[in-house]
Specification:
The chain is α/β, with parallel strands linked by helices. Helix 12 links the parallel strand 8 and strand 9.
Length: 340
Amino acid sequence: MRASAFSFKLVSFSIGAALAGTLAACTTARVSSAIESDREPASVASCVASLKAEIKRDAKERDEIYKDYYNAKVKPGNHARILVGSRSREAVVLSHGYVASPFEVLAVAERLNREGYTVYLPLLFGYGSTAETANRSDFLDWREDIHHGVELLSRCYKKVIVGGISLGGALATDFVLRHESGQTPHLATISGLLLFSPYFDVGAKLMRHLSPLISNLTPTVSMKTLRALTHSPDLNAVINHPEFYNDEMPLLALRELFALRESLTSSPQSAIQIPVFLALSDADETVDVQLADSFIKSRFSNVTEVMYPENSGVAHQLTLPEANRYFTELMLALSAFVNK
């Protein structure tokens, strides 16, 4: 199937005729004009400079914790980072997933940054280092990392969009649900939710292979061994980038993943009106795609969805251009969404 034919069908079917029209109208000139009219005032620039300094201090503190408690260190290029944009009222927190680092969402962050957004990419606690370090992490720590990111941006921006891939998407959803129930007061208005292959349960095929390892209390398994067991294309990007992903699966940390799942799935159904951008692939073998789709639609009433069919070959890491041959089309849809 040709990419152009696929992408047209994907966008027109998934996001509707109205948004397809918006996408067509979202020209470079229009986007540039919008950004030019939203330049940072000096006060915001000064505020963001202080954020950058604090993020550097956070990175140093994380290094010290990893060294003192885990005899480990954050790998080069894996620390939290911020991309400063020109918009003065709205910014984005975008989180990576399980076994990953900010690299996993960097290409998406760079696209949003070109649209004028300041984007903060947290490093979830326990990640960016070894599987042993990840095994000592706690989902409450991960939750705090998202909250901290929103709190940072709330100092400088009136509105914050939150999002992420896989575990990061689950944590972003968790934050929005708690924010809507009044559990995270005194923060910026949450103006959107960006979800890429969000985790609400492990995919059945992957779980069949993980279950015996979990039952035997195996602490880690190498990614290459796991790929040999599962033959999953979802592991290709992980193995190809050991500098940004764990080279072993931290199996003990799965208990925290499951605890987060229980917290999320026990939340009541609702019709939250915050706009949601949801990107999923039926070829994904890592998460339960059907559950992700139904969960979001049972709690949010304004969902823009991009769904790749199984024969698209788009892997779980659809935020990586190498794992998603339709990445350019996905970014066009995302640009249309955030510029509505």
